[in-house]
Amino acid sequence: MRRVRTKPTSANGNAGSMTAQTSRSDLVEKVCNYIRSNPSEDLSLPALEKRFGVNRFKIQRTFKEIMGISPRKYAEECRILLLKKNLKDNQPIPKAIYQSGYNSHSWLYDQPSSKLGMTPSSYRKGGEGASINYLTSKCKLGYLLVAETESGICSLSLADKEDSLVSSLFKEYPRAKIVRSESVRKRLDSVLDYFDGQLLSLPVDVTGTDFQKRVWTALLKIPYGETRSYQDVAKMIGKPKAVRAVANACASNPVSLIIPCHRVVRKDGGIGGYGLGIDRKEYLLAMEKSNSEVE
After folding, report:
1. Which class in CATH covers the domain with range 210-292?
2. Residue 121 CB: number of other CB atoms within 10 A?
3. Homologous superfamily, domain 16-118
4. Rounded distance, CA 98 to CA 224, Å?
5. Phi, psi (rounded to 5 degrees) for 181
6. Which of the residues 101, 125, 212, 271 has the least number of beta carbons within 10 Å of its own beta carbon?
7. Averaged pLDDT score across all residues of the chain
């Protein structure tokens, strides 16, 4: 049956009662949902044009304006997330790659560290061969966990219960060599000192998508004691309309405090979201502001 597409009309009969921004956002949301649900399908611009009945160049332009990346790049990031899940489920590497939407290994083995942070065989083994030291401590904001590899801090988090912090670390790398070690004491003490107003600067060992890395780099430029809106950060990376994508990148930050995602707030001045808890975000912002005002 041939599908007939109609345009919405306003109260006076003119087409286009739906605002342009709402229509554009709806289009991008539909494309995102389709890409996430169909990793093995043809996700090229011509295929998306045929699927949604919208000019491919409009899809490309609108998607990049709102999400900050192209549909192709978004599809790759979705496939990488699915691949990680498949590898953690201990699927054989060829099957894990195929079920993630790729028919070739070459895309992954070309600079694999930029995609998985390690070789696929190591990731499939839950980080087998990797060495991670960690230490926890009670602090003003509950419990703190700091974990590091040879290259730097790979995880920094806060929670109400110490056990939840440790279990999350082991869940991420179930077969890595994870050891509670006093070798992390100096870095952990630096974070504890930060809660009392000291500056925090530690080496990190984190991986993320190209877009996430751009956002995280921008966050490091926000001065101590100051805040920026999600819109401000989007402008800082040259993607002024990618506000939602910026918020998602902030939420994916594995080393909170060091990469200061807590310094990003809503445009209207509202506190905004925070994965470690709104109360903790309010404390951090108030603490930094108070100490930055001391001469």
Report:
1. mainly alpha
2. 12
3. Homeodomain-like (1.10.10.60)
4. 45
5. -145, 140
6. 271
7. 81
**What is the model's pLDDT at position 255?**
94
- Determine if the pTM surpasses 0.70: no
| 53-100 pLDDT tens trace | 999 999 999 988 887 778 988 888 787 777 777 666 666 656 666 666
**Which positions ≥6 away from 137 have C-beta within 8 Å?**
143, 144, 188, 192
First and final C-alpha spacing in the chain: 73
- Residue ranges covered by each domain of the chain: 16-118, 132-195, 210-292
* DSSP secondary structure code for residue 182 in this structure: G
Tell me if 223 sits within 8 A of 229, measured CB to CB: no
Residue that wins the pLDDT comparison between 116 and 187: 187
In sequence order, which residues have a C-beta less than 8 Å from that of residue 129 and are 6 or more positions away?
122, 176, 177
Q: Which residue of the set 32, 78, 154, 261 is catalytic?
A: 261
Residue 131 CA from chain centroid, whole number: 23
Identify the architecture of domain 132-195 in CATH.
Answer: 2-Layer Sandwich (3.30)
The token duo for 72 is 């192709």
Return the axis-axis angle of helices 20-37 and 45-52, rounded to nearest 10°: 120
On the question of a common fold for 16-118 and 210-292, the answer reads: yes
- How many whole angstroms separate alpha carbon 268 and alpha carbon 218? 20
- The yes-or-no verdict on residue 126 having pLDDT over 80 is no
Residue 106 is predicted with a pLDDT of 46
Q: pLDDT tens across 211-264, in order?
A: 888 899 999 999 999 999 999 999 999 888 888 889 989 998 999 999 999 999
Judge whether 32 counts as a catalytic residue: no
Neighbour-count burial of 20, counting CB atoms closer than 10 A to its CB (0-12 exposed, 13-18 middle, 19+ buried): exposed
Q: Which tokens go with 247?
A: 């918020």
